[in-house]
Amino acid sequence: MSCEKNPLSDTKSRSARTIAVHAGQERSQHGETSEAIYMNSGFTYPNSAAAEARFKGEEAGFIYSRFSNPTVEMFQNRMAQLERAEAARATATGMAAVTTALMAQVKAGDHVVASRALFGGCRFVVEDYLPRWGVATTLVDGRDATNFAKAMQPDTKLVFLETPTNPTLDLVDIAAVADIAHAHGAILVVDNVFATPIWQKPLELGADLVVYSATKHMDGQGRALGGIILGSEELIGGDIHTIIRQTGPSISPFNAWIMLKGLETLDLRVRQMTENAGKVADFLAGHEKVKQVMYPFHKSHGQYELAKKQMSGGSNMVSFEVKGGQEEAFKVADALSIFLISNNLGDAKSIISHPATTTHQRFSEEVLAELNISGGLLRLSVGLEDADDLIADLSFGLEQI
Ligand SMILES: *Cc1c(COP(=O)(O)O)cnc(C)c1O
């Protein structure tokens, strides 16, 4: 009979698992249980004055789905709460998120520092695309944070990195690089795809913006492309919102809905995939045909201490080098029956890829050597299948060498 307020009605007191299921939902007058798909491009106004007020920002409400849509907003709000960010904007793809996050912060004459081990598209944006617009860039070996300090220039406005890196799963010390960036008045943008929001919180480690390809673990079932940028209201609601509004890298409401539904099971899926990945890494590390296993939470990882410091789990990506080269690696991949040969990741289905001949084939031998991408390197995205089946599959593959 008391009229005391339930403390859990304050969503800030809810834990991440509860947030991922409920946060951000706006129910219509019909009281639907699941999130509604507002599959529409525009919105109407009761009268002309209301339209004027909404365009002037004097009245809240949706205008046009290029930059505001109820389903997209639900996804943004749920992700913002999960990441403990002030604000978020969703985009059509992960690359749209990265490109928007970077392009919104710089102009001709500025300088960007980035770690050289980047997802292929990210490296293209930094190394080839930004310079076309007069933004100079420097790529550094991100494994040693002091390399970022050495590369900073008076015009450095932004530092960009991913950790763990694709495909060798090296780490970059987010807190150390955030300090370096801030000491030079630059902002730090972290691509957190491989770690997922479950295992690593870049904003809490000092990053200013975090970007995701939602295509990966958030959808997690190979259906839809999407991306999201998270950070302070100042950065997100400022230039990032304006660039999305005016240039249109916008996510479809339908895809935003898929991501919302994906978030409800993200924690469960990522934890199970991570448990499987740990078992797979242990198996590979002890195998006579394997030269080296790369997994942040495996004791053989060169940055194991840093992994334990900035990540709360090793995530689901495992890379390994077979003894021999491309021929031996192909033999393993081609003999597998459960692992699919594909370049996607974060999927329920386990995936194997050969980076040197696929995602990284455009790079010269010199760059591949610099990135430690040898012919014998294989990258796994460990999925939700039975771990013993996955190990038996890899065991059979390795016996073919
Ligand atoms: C996949 C991926 C991207 C790009 O995302 P898309 O949704 O494919 O555009 C960016 N960074 C990393 C680390 C990725 O794995």
Specify the overall morphology: globular
Mean pLDDT, rounded to whole units? 97
What percentage of the residues does DSSP assign to strands (E)? Answer: 5-15%
- As for the CATH topology of the largest domain, it is Aspartate Aminotransferase, domain 2
Can you tell me the CATH architecture of the largest domain?
A: 3-Layer(aba) Sandwich
What is the CATH C level class of the largest domain, in words? Answer: Alpha Beta
Proportion of residues in helical segments: 25-40%
Work out the number of β strands. 12
Structural class: alpha/beta
Strand order of the largest sheet: 1-7-6-5-4-2-3
**Largest β-sheet summary:** 7 strands, mixed
Tell me the number of structural domains: 2
Q: Name the CATH homologous superfamily of the largest domain.
A: Type I PLP-dependent aspartate aminotransferase-like (Major domain)
Cα Rg: 22 Å
Bound molecules: pyridoxal-5'-phosphate
Structure notes:
By secondary structure, the chain is α/β, with parallel strands linked by helices. The protein has two domains: 14-263, Type I PLP-dependent aspartate aminotransferase-like (Major domain) (Aspartate Aminotransferase, domain 2, 3-Layer(aba) Sandwich), CATH 3.40.640.10; 267-399, Alpha-Beta Complex (Aspartate Aminotransferase, domain 1), CATH 3.90.1150.10. The protein is 39% helix and 14% strand. The protein has 14 helices and twelve strands. Strands 1-7-6-5-4-2-3 form a seven-stranded mixed β-sheet, sandwiched between helices. A five-stranded mixed β-sheet has the order 8-9-12-11-10, with helices on one face. Strand 5, helix 8 and strand 6 form a beta-alpha-beta unit. Helix 1 runs antiparallel to helix 10, helix 4 runs parallel beside helix 5 (120-132) and helix 12 crosses helix 14. The model has no long low-confidence stretch (mean pLDDT 97). The chain binds pyridoxal-5'-phosphate (PLP). Pyridoxal-5'-phosphate is lined by residues 93-95, 98, 119, 121-122, 162, 166, 191, 193-194, 213, 215-216, 225, 227, 345. The site of pyridoxal-5'-phosphate (PLP) has 18 residues, from helix 4 and helix 5.
